[in-house]
Amino acid sequence: MTDFLLRHFIKGYPEKADTPAIRTKCGVFAGIVGILCNVLLCAFKFFSGIISGSVAISADAINNLSDASSSIITLLGFRIASKPADDEHPYGHGRSEYLSSLAVSVIILIIGAGMVRSSIEKIINPSDISEDFLPLIILAVSIVVKLWMASFNHRLGKAISSKTLEATASDSRNDVISTAAVFVSTLLQMKFGWHLDGWMGLFVAVFILWNGWGLIQDSIAPILGQMPDPELVKHISSVIKSYPQILGIHDLIVHDYGPGRQFASLHVEISADADVLESHDIIDRIERRFLKEDGLHVVIHYDPVVVGDAETEKAKKILSDAAKAYDERLSIHDLRIVPGTTHTNIVFDLTVPRELDSKTKEIKSYLSEIASEHNRKWMCVITSEHSFTGI
Known about the structure:
The chain has 391 residues and is an alpha/beta fold. Helix content is 63%, strand content 14%.
């Protein structure tokens, strides 16, 4: 049913699901579906809560009304994110989608906190409900609808890489659990007179709070600047290294301005003996390739390296092996030799993981001693730096 709806209402899905235009249409459509479903569920549950006298069912209706509000936020988030870049926002408005995801997550927390309060009140002051089976039928239908909505938003969120829809899918799964708890407690109270609504509601509320906190962390991470997807880093590295002229890459940085709006910069090593114009042409081709095939804006810095010089190769191997022996995460690059009358400078960059920041001075001294042991004229000039992507 999900694929049928998407193919019927969104032209270009799933073939162009990764394009900004189709992503926006998918997000808006998901928001409309969420609003319609939740408003209808709210109306039926609220009516059911009134005729049955069940506070739990009425509270579940308010939960659906909050979900409708979340869907409105989702719809607005995709609308804002689709706005083109302007003078004040040259990288577009894509991060607004992360903000809408954060808003949905906050709403989930608020709902969870409200359910804790309602559940405690129900535990302290239990009440009887009518034995009409209509509320049970409405709750059962609600569970089925919410299961479909969770599947719908999850599949669509995966297809267009949307954390907002993933958060909405998680919220729908929470609703299934909370509504199922209300269903079971209502059934048991009708059959045996057991007042379990409050206890089940409290359990569900704690679960929702825990899940909501995790969603908030997931929403904040890309806004603060999280480590890029390892698969993306691997893809960038493999594509660039597929060009035989590229001897190595380092200092890769990926900036995320929203789904489909990523920028990357890195350094590539090319033989210093290669023709400058040819090297520049290779870099241009790589940048255009990423933009055309991946929609990724890449800026590449060209580092010429000496190839074939025996002393340079020897120094590089000795110091690389020494760095790895100290810690596997250490690496060196841009090594060059500057000879002098009294000594020879071995100039290179050292990539240090943040966990070893306090030992940077010690590591530099260690590498300098290793170099001196192999050649007393070697003097290391080391610039330490961090890796933003592991490369």
